[in-house]
Amino acid sequence: PAKLVGVDKKTDLALLKVEASRPLPALSWGDSEKVRVGDWVMAIGNPFGLGGTVTVGIISARARDINQGPYDNFFQTDASINRGNSGGPLFNLDGEVIGINTAIFSPTGNSVGIGFAVPSLGAKHVAAQLRQWGRTKRGWIGVNVQTVPDDLAKSTGLDRSRGALIASVKEGGPAEQGKIVSGDIVLSFDGRAVPNMRELPRIVADTDPGRTVPVEVWRDKRLTKLNVPVGELEEAEAQVAAANPTTIPDDAGAGTIRDLGLGMAVVTDELRKKFQIGPDVKGVVVTEVTQGSAAAEKALAPGDVIVEVAQQEVTTPASVQAKIKAAKDAGRRSVLMLVNRRGENRFVAMP
What is the CA radius of gyration of the chain? Predict the structure, then answer.
């Protein structure tokens, strides 16, 4: 018999404990950081009920973002993966598990040679936390981040476009306590380089809460070294959820979709003035974005206005929630949002 120990929805991983009367053979983890594009891999799974099926291919790409969650960092492989392969191991040629098969890209529902696996480094970290606490404990510092475009890098004296630009800092959060301010460009966190915006949330999430870590930021055309305490993401999300219940009545003026880390409100004159929203812009204004959430990964920020969801106009937080729920119930992995930021529209594929 097997017992569920814990689940992490953000990475689609679960930990089971198997009770057995005798010792069972076990696989060994490999180092996913050493995997290179072009390396040969083998996938084992249960496609279409055909248990123990083995397929072979190569690693086609690393660090793929497929809009499945806030910490997307998948291996892409052309080893044939079909329905029933999810949860199966992806091996290197030494027989070590370097990934867990999790998804495919296919217009037909069957393998077309593009499959994805969770790297072993991330899976091991999640499994260890589930085993110890029954849940994950991710690091959190309370910031919203953006990409660093070439023109901004040049204007600040940075040698090239790299790092993560701090768009906003949560009042009273760990980042504010560590003296991080809006406009800083984070270049390294806890000794790990931050090559781009997407890497910072993952690096922070992998950091144990309760520590104080060194952070290097680019500020006023020079490198500044700070020491920043690390909070716990799950505790921060729980506080947001307590203050903003997920269930939103149809006539509510404000609400939260906790799974996306998104706080919203109807557009009022006060909010138009606060966020400089034009008089002709209609929709639902974003009031809060949780660091490390799906909304933060898609670069949403307070003051953005959600105009459409699934190509249909929205006017209340409840209508946004309803359309996202409908897309989820229909089995869709993402929903298209039209977002207005200071008069300019852009489309966002929200997982």
Answer: 22
